[in-house]
Design a protein that fits this description.
Helices cover 25% and strands 29% of the residues. The protein contains two helices and six strands; from the N terminus they run E-H-E-E-E-E-H-E. The strands form two sheets. A four-stranded antiparallel sheet has the order 4-5-1-6. Strands 2-3 form a two-stranded antiparallel sheet.
């Protein structure tokens, strides 16, 4: 039997309370840098898109004093498909209230943001594996 609120009802122009926590209730935000980076990922995903990268070279990124090389790539953009209404980030879990403007956009939005953040978190701490306890939960706000 699936976990409560793991199966999502997709409604165009629906408002959702999305939440998830760290695996084994561990912290997913350990420092101010973590909070700021997650918020930056949200902003990049929900702001109007910028022009695509012209070349396919690599860039170096510094994370907590470590330098990583990565391919230049434009992150997925959900401007006009998802609106962020409110958020709360705690050390071991997060809550988002979103408006899903286009049907089924919530799933790809959450996958994109969670994957980007998980990759950062694991690389910056030299760890592997999931950081979130299963798939995010979403509740359709009806009133």
């Amino acid at each position: 039997m699936p976990a409560k609120n793991a199966i999502k009802i997709s409604v165009e122009n629906g408002y959702y309370h999305i939440y998830n926590r760290g695996v084994n209730k561990e912290e997913i935000f350990e420092s101010p840098v973590d909070y700021n980076l997650f918020l930056r990922y949200l902003k990049e995903a929900l702001s109007p898109p910028t022009p695509k990268f012209q070349d396919t070279g690599t860039i170096e990124v510094e994370i907590n004093g470590k330098i990583f090389s990565k391919a230049k790539r434009q992150p997925k953009n959900f401007y006009g498909a998802v609106d962020l209404v409110a958020y709360a980030l705690m050390p071991n879990h997060l809550h988002l209230v979103i408006k899903q403007c286009k049907k089924n956009s919530m799933e790809s939005f959450m996958k994109s943001v969670a994957t980007r953040y998980s990759m950062y978190f694991n690389k910056s701490r030299n760890r592997i594996g999931p950081i979130f306890q299963g798939v995010y939960k979403a509740v359709l706000i009806e009133n």
